[in-house]
Amino acid sequence: CRHRSMREIINLTQSVTCLLFLGSLLVYARIFFSRQSHFSILQIALSTTMKFTITTIAVLALSSVSAFAPTPQLRRYSSLSMAEGDFDFDVAVIGCGVGGHGAALHSRAQGLSTAVFAGGDVGGTCVNRGCVPSKALLAASGRVREMRDSSHLKSLGIEVEGEVTYSREGIANHAKNLANRVKGNLENSLVGLGCNVIEGRGVLTGKPHEVKDEATGKVYRVKDIILAPGSVPFVPPGVTVDEKTVYTSDGALELQFVPEWVAIIGSGYIGLEFSDVYTALGSEVTFIEALPNLMPTFDREIAKQAERMLIRDRPIDYRTGVFAAEVTPGIPGEKPVTIKMIDAKTKEHVETLEVDAAMVATGRVPNTGNMGLEAMGIETQRGFVAVNEKMQVLTKHDGGEVIPNLYCIGDANGKMMLAHAASAQGISAIENIVGREHVVNHDAIPAACFTHPEIAMVGPTEEQAIKMAEEQGWTLGKSQGNFRANSKALAEGEGNGIAKVLFNKDTGKVVGVHIIGLHAADLIQECANAVAAGTTVQELSMMVHTHPTLSEVMDEAFKGAVGMSSH
Question: Is the dihedral of CA 525, 533, 435, 384 positive or negative?
């Protein structure tokens, strides 16, 4: 019954009841029209009833077998004939990060036999060395910051006696345990849905439809192949990493020690989040940024707000327009880390810093080396694999041809280096494999920086939107909501922050949204959905938002876009 709806069961019951009624009528009709003795009539009745009962039981049994039979996993869209032994699997996914996992789950949902080449790294960067453990560090260090902020607590009527302390090992274990738990959940979900998880790393052999298990040397024949190898931290020339005193985000997540003074090279998402962790735990931070401004990829107005809220009031200073040309590891407690900086334009030496530790947060590069791309005739640019809108691999970035039955998703294609973008691309690739054409709208994919308070965005920055409007011939509109006017934010004592909505005045459609403030990462989803659905500010302004909630910050911005006032 678990595979049949209640309506189907009711219909079956009604059919059997109707059959019983008709059978009874038949018995009485034969008795009524019969001219035989009472004994013969009784024989007829019993005979007819017995025949009818046997027939009814047979029909009911057959129906019950059908009702209780498991729903078959039909390979409705696959052109494979596994019985003929042409292929070992319908789909093989090389890589088991968030993108590969999403692709594998959707592949199984379509009834395709699926293999995942995990390479000993189920969960990939996000789960093991990125998004997941970093949020654990931010959560723990954020509690320390809140409990040490006596003025904020006093405004809420709370007093904390004595010093607020923490266990470095305990916080590090919290991050490690969370990563292990999520990794286990991911692996269990794959196995539970019937995916074949192959521990070795998958590489291409140079022949179509072939993937080799690098660990065992076994070659599998597969109808469609999805490359999802992810990325690794980028370490600039001249920087020596020992993952102890000079480390990437991989080493930072282990929290081997809390340095008194740490230099963070790069001021993007990763650098900002770790500055939040370190300052909450008592460190002083120096940003070293090669470009003229901090947070160079952020919307300028939001970046200025972030500098005021996340940097000025904290033990953070910075150098901009300089390269960390040479970084030499030290020894904790004995020898400092040495950082020689040069001017980004003139390349002249400008300063040398001696700090307790240095974190390299200069971005990431594709993990596409030594996986057989060259053997397939694929030319990469800085390791990135060229793909079209359907995630099909191209032989090269400019004028490349499609390589049949080969797809690439996630960080390796460089379209949008975010875990949830990789997952969306993996699902999209499967949709195209089964014949349902699909294209990911990357303009509608949100991003977030999980500092305290958070920063979130979807779509172009205001600077980019201005340029787009000029080139495409439409008028840009802008509206703003404020956390300082929001009852929920004020109740939390967190009234700093803004939400900025960019929209097309001609059509009313939302183009982009940028938020800095309490729980911005959660608020952005409504905006991303609006961009994806093509919802207009006129429609959004009439949608009811729960009171009192932070979502009313967005309500204020949407109403302001059409000249309305929010209460």
Answer: negative
8-state DSSP, 260? S
Give me the pLDDT at residue 467, please: 98
Q: Would you tell me how many other CB atoms lie within 10 Å of the CB of residue 197? A: 16
Nearest to 495 by CA among 508, 481, 505: 481
Tokens matching residue 192: 């539970």
Residue 452 is a catalytic residue: no
Best CA proximity match to 250, nearest among 139, 361, 117: 361
Query: What is the phi/psi pair of residue 228, to 5°?
Result: -140, 55
Q: Which of 349, 452, 547, 567 is catalytic?
A: 547
Residue keyed to tokens 């395709």: 112
DSSP H helices in 409-461: 419-433
pLDDT of residue 246: 98
The secondary structure of residue 282, as a DSSP letter, is: T
The pair of structure tokens assigned to 565 is: 């006032």
| CA–CA–CA angle 262, 266, 267 (5° rounding) | 95
* CA neighbor of 237 nearest in space, from 151, 360, 367, 134: 360
Q: Which tokens hold the place of 54?
A: 């046997």
Interhelix angle 168-192/98-109, nearest 10 degrees: 20
- 94 and 371 in contact (C-beta within 8 Å)? yes
**What's the 3-state SS for 320-345?**
ECEEEEEEECCECCCECEEEEEEECC
d(CA 398, CA 323): 31
Are 105 and 193 contacting, i.e. CB atoms less than 8 angstroms apart? yes
Write out the DSSP string of 346-393: T--EEEEEEESEEEE-S-EEE--TTSSTGGGT---BTTBPPB-TT-EE
Q: Are 510 and 501 in contact (CB under 8 A)?
A: yes
pLDDT, position 50:
52
Q: For residue range 529-558, list pLDDT tens digits in order.
A: 999 999 999 999 999 999 999 999 999 999
* pLDDT for the residue numbered 567: 72
The pLDDT tens digits for 53-97 are 544 444 444 444 343 333 333 333 333 334 235 899 999 999 999
Strand order in the sheet with 454-458: 447-449, 454-458, 510-517, 498-504, 476-482
- Residue 41 scores a pLDDT above 50: no
